[in-house]
Fold each of these.
Amino acid sequence: MKIAISTGGGDAPGLNAVIRAAVLSAIDRGWEVLGIKKGYAGLLGDDEVIPLGRDEVRGIGHLGGTILGASNRGNPFHYPVRQPDGSHIEIDRSDELVENARNLGIDAVISIGGDGSLAIAQRLAQKGMRTVSVPKTIDNDVSGTITTFGFDTAVNTAMEAIDKLHTTAESHDRVIVMEVMGRSAGFIALHSGVAGAAHVILIPEIPYDIQCVCEAVMLRDRRGRHFGIVVAAEGAFPRGGYESVMGASLPGQAKRVGGVAETLARQIHEGTGKECRSLVLGHLQRGGMPTGYDRLLATRFGGAAVKAVEDGKWGHMVALQSPDIVTIPIEQVLGKPKRVDLGHDLVLTARRLGISFGN
Ligand code: F6P
């Protein structure tokens, strides 16, 4: 058996732990393993395909990033190609990819990626490529799995940032608005905001009313707490409005969400007269060493993916359904992104603690 591993989309802490676990589990079965560099670019001649053995995965389980490199603009069905005049067009290179994999003697591909990669794996499976997927996203927005590796690390990074903001915000009687990742899901904002004792948490699942946000800030002020911490998911948007978008930075990339913190800081200043600052935590949330929780989950996913290949679970993804790791058909989760459940005890408890969701 010869399998290949690909890491697609944005990186997430824990990717290397998945690769290591998958490689060692495959070698234990006597299989050969290849690594496709930069998503699928390695199979399309734009990067390489490398052998993965014990030496290549030694000492990588605790490292962030991915030894294979990642790409969020390498969809083989919409592959960006630069034209002589500098513009780009997108072409379908999926047949070429499937053929190149066949020529390399690849029997199956383990695709590690988020919703975009899951959809690509599904389409490649329809073209005859045998795939098993491992869900990956710091945003925790893939359904069918309780959580994904990388999320816990991102929450801890954001929580530590909130801890630091508390002291400086309090010293200066300021309101600080921190923007966290998550795209259209509010999990990172909700979890880090509650863990870090933020005063206002804004998530895309609850469109905010800027007047409510200002009232929450002033209520604290009247109680003698003259500073405030607002955690805003990058996809948070006002009631009746839209999320802030920065556009796509490169051809083939999805639109980039962001900018809401700056707007909020300005509006809170206008509505309360308080001094406000904003920051975007950004890619710090994707970097660094995975937490113990993420290393364990990633390791379990890597081992389970190889078992899924052994069992011929083509078109399936591994998932955490505590306490077990299971496999579920990708089609069960495609097009059904996971969002914060507003009846979840974390949301209800946060409200009881006096945290405002801006509504
Ligand atoms: O999907 C993961 C994610 O981290 C989002 O939360 C964020 O919007 C996006 O990636 C940023 O991606 P990049 O800057 O790599 O395009």
Amino acid sequence: MSRSILFVAGEGLPFIKTGGLADVIGSLPNVLAKRGHDVRVALPLYKKVIEKYYDQLERLGTIQVHSGWIDQPATFYKTEVDGVVYYFVEHQGYFERDGLYGYDDDGERFAFFQRAVLDMIYFIDWWPNIIHSNDWQTGMIPLLAHACYGDDYRYQNIKHVYTIHNMAFQGNFGVDMLPSCLGLDYYYFDNGSVKFDSGISFMKSGIVYADKITTVSPSYAQEILTEAYGERMDGVLRYRREDLWGIVNGIDVNDWNPKTDKRLAKNYDVRSYVSGKKANKKSLQEELGLEVRDDVPLIGLVSRLTNQKGVYMITDKINEILGMDVQFAVLGTGEKAAEDSFKWMESAYKGKAVYYCGYNEDLAHRIYAGSDIFLMPSLYEPCGIGQLIAMRYGALPLVRETGGLRDTVQPYNQYTGEGNGFSFWAMNPDDMVYTIAYAVDQYYNNKPGWKGLVKSAMQTDVSWERSADIYEQLYYTICNWSDE
Ligand code: ADP
Ligand code: GLC
């Protein structure tokens, strides 16, 4: 039974990306659309999207959005990619900026976005069965839909799914945001439902008011019920635990396909990976100024450089890691301390280690293809997309056993030959170094074992298909599809 679903998010491929959320928004809707659902996506119209895609957008019209104390115009645009309709909300002052988030007025910006998306439904006269909101930028939608459009049954019939991609980013703002930007009464603060400390939290509101809450792996769904991982929302999550589902992410296996990827020096698949990876390693070494050697294990890292990603475990142990006969290619931006350490690493280990400071989609593809080991020792990881891509490209993930990393990477068992990567459990840099040394030893001294590992990594199902089944079940559950 096909249904209509509106995904709402702060970013999504192919238009705009800062992290894994964009990968998810750029791939799950397509898979659901291919299964016959009417799937649409709503995003803010950022400057970068205008620069690249303006010609492809159809202007739908402008309305006045009542975002609290003032009415402001929102213009809606539309385009279609691969069977999915994308809507964009234009507000020049709020969204035509260089970055996406991290501005002082983020609360105001995304309050407007959420109200505009809800108004847009009326404007285009398309009434989805489900609104699927994602992360703090859209956490107010379930409450807004009930509280601000209460007399319209078409809004009240909509069911709400709220997906948490990262508990650490909560959208916490001052309480005055309620009347001034959202058009909501202080009542929702007074009754505690959106109250967080002395202000309000968009994410908490999503958790309280959505019909179902999901997060992006079963392990993370368990972890966030604890004080250690709950980012002070474990209490409210425990209160809603019956409605919390953990569904692991997939990737778009057509976009991420070493057999057809145009950015690679040579294409390969599971049958031809030996020569394929060899050619890609050579070309990556040349591109990055690493010593050209095909016998050495190349460790890759493509990541936001933040504490979440365990980067300080790595920077603390640079000398020990590079004391081994390995090469290390790092791509990422983030905290200055981490960037500085990797810059130092490059200068201290010329020809052996390299750091590309920036965001570079093309290089990311080539690092996945040219690496033997993909390092991802996150302190916490809701799901992780990097390790999924790495497996598809035959780079063995070396991860900490947390969240989605634990659910997707099966550590090598040298006795049975099982596994698709390497892992360690404790948040301890020595354990990480020990595991890297173990992997490097396997690379040099257990060639058949390594081959088996690369094969099973490349054959691991990292597509959306299984998880799309579960999302469909979830949608069935809240819409009582089985009754129909
Ligand atoms: P998160 O969303 O927490 O940053 P994920 O592993 O879920 O982590 O997703 C990260 C995504 O962003 C992956 O697709 C990864 O390849 C990509 N990525 C991260 N940093 C960079 C970069 N500097 N250049 C290109 N791609 C990057
Ligand atoms: C967040 C998480 C990451 C996850 C991504 C997509 O950015 O940090 O683990 O893969 O969202 O769900």
